[in-house]
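Backbone-to-sequence.
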């Protein structure tokens, strides 16, 4: 056997086992109801509708449906996403580069890769989505935790933490929140707190990752 341990990068050696992976291992292929992690009920999967859509895409688009696509994603789909966001009141400029990812985890990883330097501080909810913490920690982030109640993150505590961090010379790069259907608590941030969060982020020029 060849020993490759000496070839592994320092960053990869710093990785810890994913809690999400371990949780899913417990449930895979087993006829159990697990309280370890949240899995959607398969009875709500639109299997027939998805099969019909896949059939229609292959018949109507043919070769284009199976060909390599731009890195950001298939253009008609990206345009549809932008139109959907606009219909919900989200401002989307013509030069905004909407990107498609394979689920939220890839998006979180790419955000970390693009934004986080070792030693950057990120404000997070306590508790929050484990896999996001793992991804941000991989890029060297430190965390400042803000507790939750029935209305979501206690936003009124954020400004105090920002001032405390500045006084000690720490740089806060972003605020990470799961504002709707919070993972793992399920709470939804109130509209008043959402507005307050945006006001604080604008005041201190801090990014919000939601």
């Amino acid at each position: 056997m060849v020993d490759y341990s000496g070839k592994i990068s320092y960053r990869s050696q710093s990785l810890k086992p994913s809690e999400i992976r371990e949780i899913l291992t417990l449930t895979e292929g087993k006829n159990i109801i697990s309280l370890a992690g949240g899995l959607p009920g398969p009875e709500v999967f639109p299997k027939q509708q998805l099969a019909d859509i896949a059939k229609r895409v292959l018949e109507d688009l043919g070769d284009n449906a199976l060909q390599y696509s731009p890195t950001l994603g298939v253009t008609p789909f990206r345009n549809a996403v932008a139109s959907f966001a606009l219909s919900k009141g989200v401002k989307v400029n013509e030069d905004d580069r909407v990107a498609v990812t394979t689920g939220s985890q890839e998006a979180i990883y790419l955000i970390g890769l693009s934004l986080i330097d070792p030693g950057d501080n990120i404000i997070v909810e306590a508790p929050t989505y484990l896999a996001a913490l793992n991804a941000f920690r991989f890029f060297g982030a430190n965390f400042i935790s803000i507790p939750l109640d029935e209305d979501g993150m206690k936003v009124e505590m954020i400004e105090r933490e920002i001032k405390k961090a500045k006084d000690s010379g720490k740089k806060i790069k972003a605020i990470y929140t799961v504002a709707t259907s919070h993972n793992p608590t399920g709470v939804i941030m109130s509209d008043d707190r959402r507005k307050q969060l945006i006001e604080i982020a604008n005041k201190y020029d801090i990014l919000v990752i939601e």
